[in-house]
Amino acid sequence: MASTDHRALRVEQTRLVDALGQPVTLRGVNRSGTEFACVQGWGISDGVIDQAAVDAIKSWRANVVRLPLNEQCWLGINGINPLYSGANYRTAIAGYVDLLSDLPTVMHAAGALSRQAWDLIAAHTIRTCRAMATFVAREERGVLSLRDLDDLRAYCYAVAGIVGEMLTELFLLGRGPWRRIAPHIRRDATVFGEGLQLVNIIKDRARDADEGRHYLPKGIGGDAILGLARRDLDAAARYCVRLERAKADRGIVAFTALPVLLARATLDRVERAGAGTKLTRDEVTAIMNRLRAALDRGAVAPLMRPA
Fold first, then answer.
1. How far apart are CA 77 and CA 59, in angstroms?
2. If DSSP codes are grouped into helix, strand and coil, which group holds residue 140?
């Protein structure tokens, strides 16, 4: 998958060129694992195939990704564990390809980033990969179980907290007038990411358990995790309000506020109906419309107050 439309590529003498005749250099990544993990019976891929993985590829400025597949796993034949084959395998691959398909747009935007921004992205991506490697190393037959609350928070930091720190530094880059709010949003960046990840874990805990993943430690009550998630989201809401009061661009305020609103609504739904329940499309649309209206008024702060 290349970040230039493959239909527009052609060979011109000894060069590969795009529709405008400009030379194209392919910088490829081989994302191995999906061709053997399923056959060996311990997973769909050797390592994660999610947004963090795509972010790592983006940080390397790759524009081509090779994703090898396994026919037996795709078809779910010859006794392959159904957890890692058939519909589950195809869904996982399709989801990863969807993430990768955004690379052209992302890479076009990335080309306009400053060297400072690229350095920040690379440094935080490396931190994420190293932190995640410690958890991957603990997996037994592709299964990770978290030990206690501290372990859960460390996992959330590796998956999402570092991303929050990276985005905060990118927001602050070149914005001297934001110095007043910088200490506050840097402080809240980590728990912002933690809160969003906790909501995902709480929402998906039944499905995760069915597939052998146990992110909620034994002996930790559900109320404790819900309480932590809500406190984190309150901090995330303060983060958004500070951005608005600092006259941040509308896009930045929307980018940070929408996931907080969706996460709070998701927690409310899970508390009422149990794990596995999701917001309906109409509910998501209504939340987005309320946010747009608040942005138009320049008054997002009231929307971010806890219900």
1. 37
2. strand
Q: Can you give the residue ranges of every domain in the chain?
A: 1-112, 113-307
Q: How many angstroms separate the first and last alpha carbons of the chain?
A: 44
Q: 144-155 burial, b for 16+ CB within 10 Å, e for fewer? A: bebeeeeebbbb
CATH superfamily of 113-307: Farnesyl Diphosphate Synthase (1.10.600.10)
Supply the pTM of this predicted model.
0.68
pLDDT digits (tens, 9 = 90+) for 122-159: 899 999 989 998 988 887 776 788 889 999 999 999 99
Alpha helices in the chain (DSSP H): 37-40, 51-59, 71-75, 86-101, 103-110, 115-136, 149-156, 162-172, 182-203, 205-210, 222-245, 250-273, 281-297
Q: Look at the chain and count its residues.
A: 307
Give the DSSP H/E element, type plus range, for residue 28: strand 28-30
